[in-house]
Specification:
The protein has 176 residues and is mostly beta strands. The protein has 1 helix and 8 strands; from the N terminus they run αββββββββ. An 8-stranded antiparallel β-barrel has the order 1-2-3-4-5-6-7-8. It is elongated.
């Protein structure tokens, strides 16, 4: 009796599983291809000239910037002096710097924040000092094809030098 029940269970299991095995099909004609499409990295390059209130008085800047993706690097020369028509400038500061920055870019605007090491030359009452310090800048620009117009605030800081600036800038280069 036990033997007949075992045979019955084996036959029943074989008949139940046979249609399931027969229904399994492998479809070799449909292949799923997954492609990853990477957006090209944004690459921009421009030169900037600007003027405004720099350090102890009026001044200007000259800067070049290269931007790739969300990163940027710029080299900047910025100088300012107090206005003294009779004796010449008695108080001036010059900054030479390399900044690393991050930015937010749209087709028509850009906002950039950057900072980095800077070399300062500061003259006050015929005494010149040279320092290594840090500089930082925040730049906002409206851009149209190859031209950009914007404003920039910056800070020049060393142990005995602390100056700020705000300039209006004109940029020219690959800005789109």
């Amino acid at each position: 009796m036990l033997r007949s029940r075992c045979i019955l269970l084996i036959v029943l299991a074989a008949t139940i599983s046979t249609p399931a095995i027969a229904q399994q099909k492998t479809d070799t004609t449909s292949t799923v291809v997954t492609r990853t499409i990477e957006e090209p990295k944004l690459q921009l390059f421009w030169a900037t000239i600007g003027g405004g209130g720099v350090g102890p008085g009026l001044g200007g800047l000259l800067k070049t910037t290269y931007l790739w993706g969300a990163h940027s690097i710029s080299a900047k020369v910025q100088a300012g002096a107090e206005l003294n028509l009779w004796n010449g400038p008695q108080n001036d500061v010059t900054e030479y710097s390399i900044y690393y920055g991050r930015q937010f870019v749209t087709p028509w605007t850009m906002m950039r924040i950057a900072a980095g090491p800077a070399y300062f030359s500061h003259t006050f009452e015929n005494t010149t000092i040279h320092r290594i310090g840090m500089g930082a800048e925040v730049e906002v620009m409206v851009k149209i094809y190859f031209f950009g117009f914007g404003f920039m605030t910056s800070v020049m800081a060393a142990p005995d030098i602390l100056y700020g600036s705000i300039t209006a800038n004109l940029s020219l280069g690959k800005l789109f």
